[in-house]
């Protein structure tokens, strides 16, 4: 065990990532017993459209399908109306700078990304990682950019580089808008970062959740226009409505 991990255990209690209950460090799972059981059910949840589980579902928003011929990587279905504690993961990922949650979500994304790469004969080492940047007001409110933090953690797990390519100049929150307004707002919300150089590059682009696909599409369009040759979206969850 690393010295840093020993000090971490001495100074910090381990809590279930979903409900926050204190659990023993001897338990390898990141959840309490009840939430671990829910997690097993959570990952077997079926799509409301096709009736398939996540591993078989291909019901991606049209805007996501336009980004990459390889599809997209996501780990779980998300239903905002559900009261399951595991839905708290998405909220906490956005609002609390919790390293354990970021590491967990990044690890799940990497598992699914490696499966996608194997299916399509892709070498992930040929790619760089970027992210959909958070609005300035969001960073001020919560103190961090969750997509950036996930991208950094994913890059560590894969041993590839994270680069900043975009800035968010938007003011309206996507979640407050209709599907059509999301699309227009997303187009106006992003600009290429001043020192970004993506010509000839293959990129993974990270976000927390795929809903309409407007954010990913707006960002991908900018990157393709700037010379990126391939982009694959990565997210922890996909909306299940």
Specify the overall morphology: globular
Helix percent reads 25-40%
Distance between the termini: 43 Å
Category from helices, strands and their pairing: alpha/beta
Spatial ordering of strands, largest sheet: 3-8-7-4
Can you name the CATH architecture? 3-Layer(aba) Sandwich
CATH topology: Rossmann fold
- Mean of all residue-level pLDDT scores: 88
- Per CATH, the class reads Alpha Beta
Gyration radius (Cα, Å) is 18 Å
**How many E strands?**
8
- Detail the poorly predicted runs: none
Structure, briefly:
The chain has nine helices and eight strands. The chain is α/β, with parallel strands linked by helices and 241 residues long.
Describe the structure.
With 241 residues, this protein is of the alpha/beta class. It has one domain: Rossmann fold, CATH 3.40.50. 40% of the residues lie in helices and 15% in strands. It has nine helices and eight strands. The protein has a four-stranded parallel beta sheet. Strands 1-2 form a two-stranded antiparallel ribbon. Helix 9 links the parallel strand 7 and strand 8. Helix 5 crosses helix 7 and helix 8 (179-189) runs parallel beside helix 9. It is globular, with a radius of gyration of 18 Å. The model has no long low-confidence stretch (mean pLDDT 88).
Give short descriptive properties of this protein.
40% helix; 241 residues; four-stranded parallel β-sheet; 15% strand; alpha/beta; two-stranded antiparallel ribbon; globular
Blueprint (SSEs and pairs):
Elements (H helix, E strand, L loop, with lengths): L2 H9 L2 E2 L6 E2 L9 H10 L19 H4 L10 E3 L9 H8 L3 H22 L6 E5 L4 H7 L3 H13 L7 E3 L10 H11 E3 L9 E9 L3 H12 L4 E10 L2
Parallel strand pairs: 3-8, 4-7, 7-8
Antiparallel strand pairs: 1-2, 5-6
Helix pairs in contact: 5-7, 8-9
